[in-house]
Amino acid sequence: MTTFQLQLSDLEINREDIYLNLGYGGAEPDEHINQLLESVIDKAYQICCPQVAYILCDGKLLSQSYIELNNISMKIGSIISGYLEQADQYAVFVATGGEEYDNYLQGIKLSGDIMTEFLADAVGSEIAEAAVRYVNVKIEIEALKMGYAITKPYSPGYCGWNVREQTQLFSLFPTQPCGIRLNDSCLMHPVKSVSGIVGMGSKVVETPYGCDACAMQTCYKRKHLA
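The structure corresponding to this sequence follows.
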């Protein structure tokens, strides 16, 4: 397992994506909201300790819905398997904003400050996605060494991949990679964490997310296509 312990300054935080998380579309919040948002972002830079990790796996598609990675089978669904069918190898990753930010979110929630909680939740989501972008670059560097291209990352809970399959995905890692643990519902803690898979191969072509093939209207990827 390759692990990176980071500072928030190592990541590229995209404010436009935060605005999308807040529901502003292509618009910016007003001055008051922006001031509150900048305060949350400043706090994040003070406390946040993101981590990412990945492992390279041998594997193969078993069917239109199942994949086997390092002899562990999981049901990823037909949408994702279609994007991975040209892969020769796979990278499985985890990325998290860290326990410190999770504790910060919990403190805000207990304080009853609904607006700051709303803003901090959106910032935390962007931190997690920025961590995914970071680890994706590291995976791409590994792939290029082998003459491979990579797919986009795909995560349990999206594109028909049931979140309960996350147990199988995590079994590929040492216990609690990057301090991430699963609860009984297979959700991750810290909450601002992402796991997923990237396909690697000489015939792989990175294709856009096929949101027209998925019925999940709340998927965060749709916000970038609206």
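Helices lie at 15-22, 31-47, 78-84, 99-111, 114-145, 166-170.
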